[in-house]
Write a structure and sequence with these properties.
single chain, Fic-like fold, two-stranded antiparallel ribbon, 13 helices, globular
């Protein structure tokens, strides 16, 4: 199959980015930061400083981690409601195990991320945690060995992910660039921009057999937490993505059908979604 392309713009593949003069990036040099800054206003980002922990949180329970786990799971079709999960997690009201166990796993992965450095071994460990009740043990935290096709509900292929034989190289470039970002002095605009870039490129690589979306959204929040501190974990990005999940998937699809021919000039609508998590409705 050939990639979907936009004939009015040059098609920038990941290989093209690698040759562009953008620091030492190998895979993340998406040239949209300046345009992003014109559309993401400083007052919008300064809402970050106004974030406050919920009164429901306590030493052994985080309300906003529950928000992250519930809505990231709902994006993937899990039939869970935030009110029910808070009653279960905070107040001990019992529900059937099948209703809560996958969300518990994702909650635990977020808690793990808060306490551990963002790197490849820990990201794989977080994936192993969040897929305890999704994948067999042999696939938890392990790079896939088979082809990956993302399909629609009626069985049509909407995306062909990176080929399994290319994953070591693509992930090597990804983690190389992640290390550069973690050690860089980023402005607030740049931090939000690259958090979304990491999310986007990770889910386009699609390195695992399942749990890629959950992991990509956790990665985005983890990067914000690593750069901005504990308050970043209060951002309701997963809730915002769920509230606009049709647009979320539409913006992911804009880049094209096949990994090797993605047009990252079309990534701006996706990258602009993350700041909306700062002003999401309560």
């Amino acid at each position: 199959m050939r990639a979907l392309r936009n004939g009015k713009k040059p098609n920038f593949t990941l290989e093209t980015f690698a040759s562009m003069p953008n620091g030492d990036f190998k895979i993340l040099a998406i040239p949209l930061l300046e345009e992003y800054k014109t559309q993401v206003t400083l007052p919008m980002l300064e809402a970050y400083h106004q974030l406050q922990e919920s009164e429901l949180s306590m030493d052994n329970f985080s309300f906003y981690t529950s928000v992250s786990a519930v809505f990231s799971s709902k994006i993937e079709g899990e039939p869970i409601e935030l009110d029910s999960y808070v009653k279960y997690k905070r107040f001990g009201i019992e529900f059937l195990p099948d209703y809560t166990r996958k969300i518990d796993d994702l909650y635990d992965a977020y808690q793990f991320a808060k306490l551990n450095a963002l790197n490849q071994p820990n990201l794989e460990a977080a994936h192993a945690t969040l897929t305890k009740n999704i994948l067999p043990k042999s696939q938890q935290g392990q790079t896939r060995a088979s082809n990956m096709y993302v399909t629609t509900s009626d069985g049509k292929i909407e995306y062909v992910a990176a080929q399994p034989q290319s994953l070591p190289n693509e992930l090597g470039k990804f983690y190389h660039d992640l290390d550069i970002l973690l050690n860089a002095d980023l402005a607030l605009h740049e931090t939000f921009y690259y958090a979304a870039v990491l999310h986007l490129v990770f889910v386009k690589i699609h390195p695992f057999d399942d749990g890629n979306g959950r992991t990509g959204r956790l990665l985005e929040k983890w990067f914000l937490g690593a750069k901005l501190g504990e308050k970043a974990w209060l951002i309701q990005s997963e809730k915002m993505y769920y509230q606009h999940h049709q647009l979320y998937y539409q913006n992911l699809r804009k880049l094209g059908l096949e990994y090797d021919h993605l047009d990252y000039h079309l990534a701006l609508p996706f990258l602009l979604m993350l700041p909306q998590g700062l002003i999401v409705a309560k």
